[in-house]
Structure formats: C-alpha cells, structure tokens
Design goal:
Blueprint: E1 26-28, E2 31-33
C-alpha cells in the first residue's frame, strides 16, 4: 500500500460540520481501519490524528 503524506498542523478550522466521531484505529492485515456508520458512505470525511489520547 502506498504511503499517504501527513500534513502537520496544530489547529484545524472547518465549516458546515454535521458532527464528529471519536474512534480508535484498529489493525486489519498489513493496514489499519477506522469503523464508521454506513450512513456516511460516499461522504467526504477528515481523519485527524491526535498526538495524545483524549481525556474522558
């Protein structure tokens, strides 16, 4: 699988957000996945990687 470049930033500002999910990346074969409800199939999504785990 080709490596996708990661764009580093400390702030992200978005408009027209429907909502957000907090999920954990899990392994699948030699890659990884993030589970998401089927209702979002075909939608544009942003995957934001946090430096540390969020505090509950």
């Amino acid at each position: 699988m080709k490596r996708v470049p990661l764009h580093s930033a400390t702030t992200l500002t978005l408009e027209n957000i429907q909502g957000f999910l907090i999920r954990e990346v899990t392994p699948i074969g030699t890659s990884a996945k993030v589970n998401c409800p089927k209702e979002y199939l075909g939608k544009t999504v942003y995957l934001v990687i946090l430096r540390d785990k969020p505090k509950p």
